Here is the input.
Amino acid sequence: MRPPEPPHGSTVWCGGGIRRGIAVALTVLLGLSSSVEAAAPASTTPPPPHPSIVVNSAQPLGSISPGLFARNQRYVDAGDGVLDLSTLASDPTIVPIRADVLAYARQAGITGLRFPGGSVGIAYNWKNGIGPVLRRPTCTNYAGAPSACYAYGIMEAMEFAEALGPQSVAWTEIVLSNTISAENAAEFVAFVNAPDDGSNPWAALRAEYGHPQPYGVHYWCIGNEVKPLKVYYPDATAWLNGYAQSGQTMWDGALNIMSAMKAVDPTIAVGSGWIVKNNDLFNALQGEGARFDFVDLHNLTNGHGSGATTATENYTTVRAAAGISTKTVALQDLINGAQYPSLQGMTVLSSEIDVGDVALRFSLSHALAEAVALNSFIANDLTLEEQTPFSALVSHPPAAARSEDLEWFPVAGGGEPPGDQYGDWVATAPSYTYQLYANYLGTQSVAAAITSAPTEKVGRSSVQTLYVTAALNARGSVLGLMVTNADLSASWSVPITVQGFSAATGTVEQVDGPDVTSVNTLAAPDTVGISALPGFSVPGSGVFTYTFPPHSITAIDLLAPLPPPGTISGAVTDSMTGSGIPGATVSDTAGSSTADGGGGYTLSDVPSGAYTVTASAPGYASLSVQAS
Here is the structure.
């Protein structure tokens, strides 16, 4: 996106000097915006091709949430291999994140983490994951080998989140056990969020381990895919209150846990990962006259890895990706309706959204599906956390390796050093989808529609293969179009009509690869990547045609016309006497000028922007001021 456009005029006075000061007056005169008209289209208009796109920048949908780019990050096996193992000999209390992994994560635009994961996370004991790393307990991984599963603890996860960016902790979610005690949950919140002011021993322990300031995690989820269990909670009401079928109290209950957590930090959002069936959780909450701050859904795709053809797998995954926001939107509408008055304001989030097929995981097909899913979320203005696994964006070849099957490093109690079993990392094809879309986080999504969208037949149903979403930056100077063509072989030459926005030029970036099965490997890390393509001029009519190649994701930034060049003028004066300084030199990056007999100067043909203007003269100290 472009920097803010400057005002059309400003005057700046500055004084001071070493021997005798220079005062500089600046008057900035910039021309008004004017549209750039391209050659008129031919007088004879051919029949509209199939398909076409219409974008209306005057019809806003909502702000594109940074939470779309949060990631599910599991604690097992050193956080799926993100830790810097070279630091272990010093037995640190916070193990650093690998520099290469962090660089890839930033490149992909990751904005937050989900810790300590889903199914593996509900068995996590957070107290085992703090303190000197080599003194933390070990556990058995999926392969049965000893694993330093607590090496990636809460402080490592927060170290990772903080390193991603200033807002990333705010978009981080912590998952608690389905049946964690209220006391343990409150202590967890205190360790993460309480101030170290002497009033809380858990906050003091966090400070002792190297982080005096509270982390400030906002989202806390009780349970992962919680569902009725015969012993502990036979239904949602029992789970909320902590009793079994017999009525005997078995645990503290989700509502009591939430109350204990908010007593420590009232600003947090507490929710549930309950599997909603027949609206059972919503009915139970309404019956209790209570609500969570959010409910967290898992929109996982089904039916993949079946050995079907590449075309079928690709199109089935795309179809699933296009529909994964439907359930979220429906539930959001439901809980904000008249049926559930006590639930008003409860948000529906989505996590563990994994649209990658087993056979095509990490491939360009996976990247296409991620783009289609993002388009769906943006078009529906969802406030959620879209969390595909972190390993889907930054992979450790071979791609088929499961990190749970590897023993990571020697731990207290013995074990042979296996070495760094993952070695180097590589950015996967889906990571470039997110890198492309990262430019639009925080911008305003606007209406964009495809008419006569192309489809492919899969079984008895049809799958749409061309998708679009659009966004307008805060200054209204850049309109972005993101178009995904998931077709295996067909290019589409699409007429695009832009309404409510005057564009002069367009710039293009594109994610593409040889075919939908393409993956990045250590030997060929750039098989799938982002290419900058030639720009183009936009006709004054706002209608242009662009050809989208097969299996591609294209970002087109339409740029509003820049104002014509202006002038910077003023006077250079003695700061003590106020007299003009003839012959003073005034310069900026666009040029220079010599002051006239009264100290006046003019810098002409200055492009729109911000400048540092410097005045100098013999016998005076130079002085620089800002002009825009």
About this structure: The two ends are 19 Å apart (CA to CA).
